[in-house]
Amino acid sequence: MKDALKHAFAIGDTTDYEPNKKQKNIVDKVCREVVKRKLTLPAQVMLETFRPLNYIGSQVMHFFQPIISAVLTGDGYIEFSSFLEKRGSVDYLCRRINEIEAEGETPIK
Asked: How far is 9 from 78, CA to CA, in rounded Å?
């Protein structure tokens, strides 16, 4: 029994997370908008503050998806909420915002 419960609450490694190509494109657009609007520091503070709640936030996004899909088109919303479900998503977002800011490029590609 003890062996069965040994990894019941394991949260996984956060440093090795790599989103799929579609999620990378969506995250890149979001991060470029953050840098373009000069909201890098507030975005990183918010991400770090709400890090423990990223999974709950993604579930809330899934809950409201039918309502929002009536207004918005495309499946980028679903991909972004799926991205946020992963433990390493906040680290990836922060890292990508820093990379884009360091590049000095802000136009959306």
From this structure: 26
